[in-house]
Specification:
Layout lengths: L1 E6 L7 E5 L11 E5 L3 H7 L9 H11 L1 H7 L1
Antiparallel strand pairs: 1-2, 1-3
Length: 74
């Protein structure tokens, strides 16, 4: 099935939006059509999860910002 998309730039390597049909190219530049199994489209609809922060680093940041709590735990 064809998807109407807008790419980030003219390189057409990354999709930034999807439309129900073709749009005015002057208003929405870098448009294109891709199949619903196109790897760029699949990445757009299912982006990778952001990396989770290390819990130890989060604890260190918290204790540095809250010295009263750090003193209690010492």
């Amino acid at each position: 099935m064809i998807k109407y998309v807008q790419f980030v730039d003219e390189s057409r390597t990354q999709i930034q939006g999807e439309f129900g049909n073709s749009q005015d190219r002057e208003v929405y530049p870098n448009q294109g059509e891709v199949e619903d199994d196109d790897p760029r489209y699949l990445e757009f609809i299912n982006p990778p999860a952001p990396p989770s922060p290390d819990p130890i680093d989060k604890l260190r940041e918290f204790l540095a910002a809250n010295p009263d709590v750090a003193a209690i735990l010492s």
